[in-house]
Amino acid sequence: MTNPSLLILPGDGIGPEVMTEVRKIIDWFGAKRGLAFDVSEDLVGGCAYDKHGTPLHDDTMAKAQEVDAVLLGAVGGPQYDTLDFSVKPERGLLRLRKEMDLFSNLRPAQCFDALADFSSLKKDVVAGLDIMIVRELTSGVYFGEPRGIFEEGNERVGINTQRYTESEIARVARSAFDLAMKRDKRLCSMEKANVMESGILWREVVTEVGEDYPEVELSHMYADAGAMQLTRWPKQFDVIVTDNLFGDLLSDLAAMLTGSLGMLPSASLGAPMANGRPKALYEPVHGSAPDIAGQGKANPIACILSFAMALRYSFDQGEEAARLEGAIETVLADGLRTADLMGPKGGTPVSTSGMGDAIVSALDASL
Ligand code: NAD
Description:
Number of strands: 14
CATH architecture of the largest domain: 3-Layer(aba) Sandwich
Mean pLDDT: 95
CATH superfamily of the largest domain: Isopropylmalate Dehydrogenase
Oligomer: single chain
Bound molecules: nicotinamide-adenine-dinucleotide
Shape: globular
Low-confidence stretches: none
Radius of gyration: 21 Å
Strand order of the largest sheet: 2-1-3-12-11-4-5-10-8-9
Largest sheet: 10 strands, mixed
């Protein structure tokens, strides 16, 4: 049997630094758990522009379409700010998302107990929090036509159009139900069916898809009420599914319930491939952090947690993903902190590689 394949795109700034730590984790799973991956590595973003004059070479794009999962670090940097829009580093990432048709964006909000003090909310509201926001990523008001700024009478009018087809709603709903089946089997769908026709259709289609998932408890909530409930008592949720615009807002809100940007992973999933696995891109939420790049200060946990998501959602290795998350919980409980996690209570300062090594040791101890 061939090993599952992973394409690694470290990118720019702190991307390569955090990815070096992920490689240690990948090697550990190969050596200690018999979970070997065929890993290839390539360029994306500014470094790809420097070499090829484009932020994503066609060969890299083709490779991304073939592998079982893509793991990306971050792209961008001030030296590329003056480039033409068409070759900016971010265009490489956008091309990947578009051509892989990654319509389902997964943003977990998971609070490690040791970091509960970091939240702006009370500790008991966030400690142990583990929810997942599924955001529709390729349609809705960011893409709908007509759009633009037009002359109307003697003034200008700005127009964007919220537009969803049944099939667009159904496929993201299905991906959210599938996720709920791998978790606590509860799904809350959020829209504004009280004031938007697209919301009415959203609610109807999600309900219809739900008939195929009788084990999942489905609820519906208006997105504005959802925002309130997320800050009041976020632990009431397991999986939330919502559209592109509301998902943009709600996933940022939920993510920051838990503290630092250096801790936040994400996944973007598309349609199932011939082998049944979804097309998938895993990446930390943070950017290339040029202010700390090259100084050994970056927190690698967001990228390592992105690999944990790949284990769970691309490779059906939920127990191994939990082992990795448990190792991270252990090092945090032991007080190890990269600079971004050094709160008022202090801790033992570690570098990027120190954090990676400590997580590998905690993995060893988990055996
Ligand atoms: P950023 O996420 O790179 O950094 C914001 C702040 O958070 C900085 O102070 C940074 O030092 C800190 N930070 C981020 N990740 C960290 C980590 N892992 N450990 C410790 N601290 C961390 O956002 P920005 O400064 O707005 O953007 C910098 C560059 O990254 C820009 O070129 C931007 O376009 C790009 N960017 C890329 C992505 C991506 O690749 N997905 C996302 C956002 C921004």
